[in-house]
Amino acid sequence: MSLKVYNSLTRQKEVFEPITAGHVGMYVCGPTVSGESHLGHARPYITFDIIYRYLMYLGYKVRYVRNITDAGHFEEEGREAEDKISKKAVLEKLEPMELVQKYTNLFHKAMRAFNNIDPSIEPTATGHIVEQIGMIEKIIADGYAYVANGSVYFDVEKYNEDFSKKGMPYGILSGRILEDMLETTRELDNQEEKRNKADFALWKNAPPEHIMRWKSPWGEGFPGWHIECSAMSVKYLGEQFDIHGGGMDLQFPHHECEIAQSSVCNHVMPARYWLHNNMITINGRKMGKSYNNVIKFTELFSGNHPALEQAYHPMTIRFFILQTHYRSTLDFSNDALKAAEKGLKRLWEAYDNLKNLSTDNTADSADKELETKVQKLTSEFDEFMDDDFNTAKVLANIFELVPVINGIKDKHISAVALSGNIITQLQKKLKVYLEDIFGLRNEAATDDSKLDGVLQVLITMRKEAKNRKDYVTSDKIRKELESLGVMLKDEKDGNISYTLA
User: Fold this and answer.
1) Which of 23, 115, 190, 273 has the greatest number of beta carbons closer than 10 A?
2) In whole angstroms, how far apart are CA 286 and each of 35, 40, 283, 328?
3) Cβ atoms of residues 370 and 404 within 8 Å
4) How far apart are CA 111 and CA 99, in angstroms?
């Protein structure tokens, strides 16, 4: 079966055919580092990490580009368009780049906690001002942008008129119609310089008090939000690449504007496949500051938020996201997270049991019906992932295998019911899926390993004390460990073992 992906552009599943055989170029919109990332951000970055991993599993050489927006993401609320980063820097009394570094570091720390693989390239908006200016100049030269009071705006109406004839109207991705947008878009104060309400900024003139500013042919200012992704994607992936990803909330206006900008400059749709993950809601309600339900990563991991009943481990969050297809709405609740926590624990217990099953069994004594069931369940893993990355169905199959594994371990099922060959295949398949593709880590096992390491250090110290005939220190270490439930035993060969009470 060939890999099929749901293309938001065509609104249907399509067989994935990369532009260059064996190679995939993928661009995913990264965070705006004006503040700490929150629960809603976990879904796109975990989703596209799994897509990245699966593409590599299929044998593709993937160039994964995920940007950092450290300038230019402004919000037109009130009288003036305001740069989020400059605004937050003033509030926190930090230099803008100091603020950017602070929240970029927190973002990277969270990505490591989620066990996300680093992208191939992580470009920043501030590192590509020259490229953005160059692209804006080309759009102006081609007649699709205009200068007004030191700012540059994209002429949406002219673009729509010309590119509709080429089958690429403004709204092609989101399904919106320009005429409807013109009727419903509200007028903003001090936006009279725009020819059209739907026009968007490519470059903004910086007022004297604005901290982040760069020289340009139109005066000092800063780039619009949308232009950075067009400039960076073409630089690192070419005029047309394979996959453009992001959250569903970015379809409009961000990705729609990217298509318009890039199409003018390069005369081609920037990406062949547009993939969008759905949103996370909280107790059935959209996340929003007004609802006091925006949960930052640090709050999620510490439990320090009024909506949380406890802290949740990053692997629990990752597993929770995997349980639902990426295009379906995912509702967050404490009950759902606790259920995911229990499910993940049950999964790791079965996985550990599987590792300890004997692989010496011959096919002669095997239960053929059970083996057929196991082979069918595992063979469907790739089929489900090839069907638009359906992690939820893969997990459902894995949980059908759990009682089989546990049944053999607990002797409810014959120890020879599965041949050694089938058990070996199952061990390999689950390792690939749980660890390599799904990116899950058994944190309990990691913690056990750390505990063992600490105890071995103390045991070595006690052994050295005994060898020096320092029995006071030796006995003290033993008694302190016993008080913590760690029982030491001096073995005949001179080694020391321990058991946990």
Assistant:
1) 273
2) 19, 10, 8, 14
3) yes
4) 18
Domain 4-277 class in CATH: alpha beta
| Cα distance between residue 221 and residue 72, in whole Å | 10
Residue 247, sorted as left (phi over 0), alpha (psi -120 to 50) or beta, turns out to be: beta
- For 136, which DSSP code? H
Known binding residue 29? Answer is yes
Q: Which residues pair with 25 in a beta bridge?
A: 63
**Amino acid identity of 480?**
E
- Tokens representing 448 are 């056990």
The full set of domain ranges for the chain reads: 4-277, 291-437, 443-500
Mean pLDDT taken over the chain: 91
| 236-275 pLDDT, tens digit each | 999 999 999 999 999 999 999 999 999 999 999 999 999 9
Q: What are phi and psi of 217, to 5 degrees?
A: -60, -15
- Residue 150 three-state SS: coil
Sequence-ordered list of residues with C-beta below 8 angstroms from that of 105, at least 6 positions apart, any chain: none
Both structure tokens of 323: 């349980």
Instruction: Confirm whether pTM is higher than 0.90.
Output: no
- Quick check: 449 pLDDT over 60? no
Tens digits of residue pLDDT in 350-402:
999 999 998 998 888 889 999 999 999 999 999 999 999 999 999 999 999 99
**Which of these, 329, 309, 423, lies nearest to 370 by C-alpha position?**
423
Q: Tell me, which fold does domain 291-437 have in CATH?
A: Isoleucyl-tRNA Synthetase; Domain 1 (1.10.730)
**Cα–Cα distance measured from residue 111 to residue 117, given in angstroms and rounded to the nearest whole number:** 8
CB burial readout 400-416, b (16+ within 10 A) else e: ebbebbbebbeeebeeb
Q: Nearest CA to 254 among 274, 227, 291, 278?
A: 227
4 is in an annotated binding site: no
Cis omega before residue 253 (within 30°)? yes
Going from the C-alpha of 162 to that of each of 144, 183, 199, 230, 306, the distances in angstroms are 10, 21, 15, 20, 52
36 annotated as belonging to a binding site for a ligand: no
- Dihedral, CA of residue 459, residue 460, residue 462 and residue 464, to nearest 10: 160
Identify whether the C-beta of residue 388 lies closer than 8 Å to the C-beta of residue 327. yes
**pLDDT tens digit sequence for 184-224:** 766 655 567 999 989 999 999 998 888 889 999 999 999 99
Average pLDDT on 406-414 reads 93
